[in-house]
Write a structure and sequence with these properties.
The chain is an alpha+beta fold. The chain is built from four helices and five strands. Helix 1 runs antiparallel to helix 2 and helix 2 crosses helix 3.
């Protein structure tokens, strides 16, 4: 069985393409391993197929595990940590009650969305400050008491 270097390079391209359609970052490391084996085979054309597959396996596992270790030591920080938590992004904002807070629950418009709010009873039209969230419910308090 003879495997040529271009087999590995095409495999690398296919794996890189799969990475584009599959969530996560796993196939890219298999693609890197296949590319390294393909380039090595160009330099050493008499490399037995068993060694090629062993190198591919070791490089695949090593690159995937190595990247996971690197990622744990260097986590990616978001420029907007509240991006997918809309309620959390509203903390600190002043809003006007659309409906009064009665028995601890009321409603306020924020932009074009009517939010359920919880806090001390207050009449409609009162300005309150968002001090926290509980799922999709905004916790509010009077602006002068909210710190």
């Amino acid at each position: 069985m003879e495997i040529e270097s271009w087999y590995w390079l095409v495999t690398a391209l296919v794996l890189a393409a799969v990475e584009a359609f599959v969530p996560g970052t796993f196939f890219i490391w298999l693609a890197v391993a296949a590319a390294v084996v393909g380039l090595t085979l160009m330099a050493l054309p008499d490399l037995p197929w068993q060694v090629q597959f062993l190198a591919f396996a070791i490089l695949s596992i090593g690159s995937a595990v190595g990247f996971r270790q690197y990622q744990r030591r260097h986590p990616v920080t978001s420029a907007d940590p509240t991006l997918n938590r809309r309620g959390a992004s509203l903390v600190g904002r002043l809003v006007v009650l659309e409906r009064p807070i009665v028995n601890g629950r009321g409603h306020a418009f924020v932009g074009d969305t009517l939010w359920t709010v919880t806090g001390k009873d207050q009449p409609a039209g009162s300005t309150v400050k968002v001090v926290g969230t509980d799922g999709i419910v905004l916790k509010v308090d009077s602006p002068d008491r909210a710190g």
